From TrEMBL, chains A, B:
Catalyzes the ATP-dependent conversion of 5-aminoimidazole ribonucleotide (AIR) and HCO(3)(-) to N5-carboxyaminoimidazole ribonucleotide (N5-CAIR). The gene is purK. It is an enzyme of class 6 (ligase). Gene3D superfamilies: 3.40.50.20, ATP-grasp fold, A domain, ATP-grasp fold, B domain. InterPro entries: ATP-grasp, ATP-grasp_carboxylate-amine, ATP_grasp_subdomain_1, PreATP-grasp_dom_sf, PurK, PurK_C, PurT/PurK_preATP-grasp, Rudment_hybrid_motif. Keywords: ATP-binding, Ligase, Nucleotide-binding, Purine biosynthesis. This is N5-carboxyaminoimidazole ribonucleotide synthase. It comes from Streptomyces andamanensis.
Amino acid sequence: MTFPVVGMVGGGQLARMTHEAGIPLGIRFKLLSDTPQDSAAQVVSDVVIGDYRDLETLRAFARGCDVITFDHEHVPTEHLRALEADGIPVRPGPEALVHAQDKGVMRARLDALGVPCPRHRIVSDPADVAAFAAEGDGFPVVLKTVRGGYDGKGVWVVDSAAEAAEPFRAGVPVLAEEKVDFVRELAANVVRSPHGQAVAYPVVESRQVNGVCDTVIAPAPDLAESLALQAEEMALRIAKELDVVGHLAVELFQTRDGRVLVNELAMRPHNSGHWSMDGAITSQFANHVRAVLDLPLGDPRPRARWTVMANVLGGDYPDMYSAYLHCMARDPQLKIHMYGKDVKPGRKVGHVNTYGDDLDDVLERARHAAGYLRGTITE
Amino acid sequence: MTFPVVGMVGGGQLARMTHEAGIPLGIRFKLLSDTPQDSAAQVVSDVVIGDYRDLETLRAFARGCDVITFDHEHVPTEHLRALEADGIPVRPGPEALVHAQDKGVMRARLDALGVPCPRHRIVSDPADVAAFAAEGDGFPVVLKTVRGGYDGKGVWVVDSAAEAAEPFRAGVPVLAEEKVDFVRELAANVVRSPHGQAVAYPVVESRQVNGVCDTVIAPAPDLAESLALQAEEMALRIAKELDVVGHLAVELFQTRDGRVLVNELAMRPHNSGHWSMDGAITSQFANHVRAVLDLPLGDPRPRARWTVMANVLGGDYPDMYSAYLHCMARDPQLKIHMYGKDVKPGRKVGHVNTYGDDLDDVLERARHAAGYLRGTITE
């Protein structure tokens, strides 16, 4: 056995940070990227430029890889089955990944497992949305295309049947869900290996602004231990039942009446786990690599009392580098993670991590740095 | 100002780990490497294959770089001056770097600064070595070629003039030094930026086996605070007086009579600082990048009570990867850093870091992992 080749499909920031985490392991990392300018393509040695939607491109890329894993969930399921038929391990495999690709499949499976979810069903047109609303507490209702949505895209909150026309225009099945009365969003991150070892990171609180993750606090403050345990066990059970290999993020609603409901699943390193790069003994990226290689997993426990991750979004100023001077001088413990992306307003171009014993201080430092880099804070 | 390009000369493991540390900063990293198989060339996107001893190769490489820095100290001084004349910042600069290249120049400068060193002088032949011995406590005497030695190479310990012929054969000036009666070796690591900001890492103990660094303990156990402070101040003063930019490692002898004497200087990230990758708030590699870019430096303080680094040397078994299974399963907190090098007996191919509150435990875990990877421990 020699050092294996991990093939990563997709050149985004998750691939970039997975490469960073793989370097110390001495493994070979091969990237399939849309363009040479993609986030990960800028920092990886062995890059193939090509379209993951093309099966022959994928097949050619996979030759010489010991395992294939993903920066995103958009590779067609039938392509993944073809790679498996070629004898290439695909992790997570297509039968697991479909639950992160198709929200209809995901909801049906979680229902079958008895995992608590928001009330939901597939709807066929605006009149059917009105019927779904009437079956429960009425409007508002959340509508989601079952495939293709992320960061608030492909998601609508509608107050009437008249507002519900838009989601049906794409011709993709539409899932209706109750608008959950939640007090906050949580995420349970777990990593599972092919032979079934699994580790759970502490449950985190994820704060959204305009449908995009703004801040993550690890661990989630003031979370009852019983609820934390329930969320961790739920994530571990989903990972096992769905045969997930690699990182699984379970996004959760904490309801006003003290329950946790599953919002979304992601089967790859996830924004809600970025805190682990500086805040955990083993980062989500390092553990994802270990999992897909079927190596023993690393300790997921936190290294600090509190760790806060704040996403850096693009603002009006294209030059974020010059903001480093102030941010680094102000906070010598600040951890900046930039993705090599062009700045566009609202685009996730990086994140910062801070950690320490005092949550207010740790939060303030993360928010200040993210705001200063974006240009919304100027002192 | 946009994200800068750091040009790294040399494709060894220090370049590899500097790239790893630079990824989160979003900078561009360009590598000049001897071969595509070199440690860093395996993991960097933008690689030029060429010979750093050829000025035109260096010049072509430097075009488009915002700053040049180094994996090693072997680039000829006159080449560095030529790059500076071309307007490319070279960090550390040639006037600083010569002190890490030429042990004769280094000793003369440290003498002028009043920095305590072992008794020493340049010697011309074996008879002169005998004279040098007679001027002090006699044999043994340490002989070093002033250029080109590392890890015990280019260093001889001789017990008589008759044994002293070998070092003179290369035609390079030879430095004679007293064999210091030391109780242990220490290292003071500091990083300095062009505008003069500097940070000091805690002084570490470095344990050698057969002239090669085996283990580093951070901080050095049972080191009197006054001596630690003296060593840190000495390193900061040397960095300032020699106008070092980037990382400076000052290797020290702690003598039986309670003094610290300078053994060697290295002006690049250094083996004695590898512990900082997992044990300090900011690693030596991250701070080296920040320094050469004249960014504010990161906090060098330790994150754990004790951190131990153990070098992984090549043994009789070429396949280290299969040893990961046992090492990772035994110690989920273990940090492995492999360099992508072919295993050859005695060659440094990686290191491991461990940290925690109990030094005996931390030492045992590091030694076990390094020994198991090498193949000298089999259970």
